[in-house]
Design goal:
It is built from six helices and twelve strands. The protein has 304 residues and is of the alpha+beta class. The longest helix has 17 residues, at 58-74.
């Protein structure tokens, strides 16, 4: 518990240097390779990013995949430009999501249109050296919102970084620490912390499942909207809650429709098909004013 609380405060210290979002700073995302053709990122192992079963939290896995792809596209741009995820597809191999995690992003090419430009890329995420998922994505190149400045990506290196003292915290930092404290109170030991911290706690409904969480810096990307990989994670956990426990995620295709903004973010999942061995779930994530943020279709396999 104390180790995670220290990690929360260390990530807040890292947050004061622009260059990453809070979740990336908390997870300790680091770049072992960063070129226009290929990016390799790693995250720390530990109870801070594990679910109750000891697997890496699916939100953290999805964030690694999204950051690996987005970073390799960004490596082909100038620092002042920003990206918005257009679409993302992940196919899971069934390998356990345990051990050291590494995401490898590889650049394909740009798709140029009359008024828009997209970067295409792919990724492989390894868990304990084994391929755990394959993905591909499309990212729109955009200018930052008015009044926002974009900075080069900064690795989230915890080693040697002193955590902030509580008396040093600003109001928004104190709110984030309070959220972390509530999450720690809700779990036994440390496992499952991220699920409570991010608020990805779905419940079953008559035709599927629903999840609602407060939006904020704990979920935000570098411009303050809900981070795309965390949207994928929220869609997956909500879709999984729509099915009995013997079903496991095999893949997700997602389309990003609008920024993840608003006081609350809500996911609604509906089972579209459940056969003997495969199932399909459609999930919609909504934000401010009920506006659709993301639509996703997930495929699931029945366990042995």
């Amino acid at each position: 518990m104390l180790d995670i609380r220290r990690r929360v405060l260390t990530a807040l210290a890292l947050e004061r240097t622009p260059g990453f979002n809070y979740s990336g700073n908390f997870l300790g995302v680091r770049f072992s390779e960063l070129t226009p053709a290929r990016v390799c990122i790693e995250i720390d192992q530990g109870a801070h990013c594990e679910d109750e079963s000891g697997d890496i939290d699916i939100g953290a896995v999805s964030l690694v995949a999204d950051v690996a792809m987005g970073s390799v596209v960004r490596a082909n741009l100038s620092p002042e430009q920003r990206l918005a995820t257009v679409s993302l597809n992940l196919q899971f191999t069934g390998a356990p999501l345990r051990g050291a995690m590494q995401g490898v992003g590889e650049f394909h090419n740009f798709v140029d249109g009359s008024d828009s430009r997209q970067g295409l890329c792919r990724a492989t995420v390894f868990a304990d050296g084994r391929p755990a998922l394959f993905g591909n994505g499309a990212f729109m190149i955009m200018n930052p919102p008015p009044g926002r400045t974009m900075y080069p990506l900064t690795p989230a290196v915890h080693a040697g970084m002193a955590p902030l003292a509580e008396h040093e915290l600003e109001d928004h930092e104190r709110e984030l620490l309070a959220r972390a404290d509530r999450a720690l109170q809700a779990v036994e030991g440390a496992r499952g912390f991220l699920k409570h911290f991010w608020g990805m706690l779905p419940w079953t409904t008559a035709d599927g499942a629903r999840c609602r969480t407060a939006n904020g810096a704990h979920l935000g990307n570098r411009v303050g909207h809900m981070q795309g990989g965390l949207q994928i994670g929220m869609a997956i956990v909500t879709a999984e809650a729509a099915l009995p426990a013997e079903w496991s995620i095999s893949g997700i295709s997602a389309w990003f429709l609008s920024p993840g903004e608003g006081h609350d973010i809500e996911a609604n999942a509906r089972v579209e098909h459940r056969g003997r061995n495969t199932a399909v779930v459609r999930t919609v994530i909504s934000g401010k004013g009920g506006r659709r943020v993301l639509e996703a279709v997930t495929t699931h396999l029945r366990g042995g």
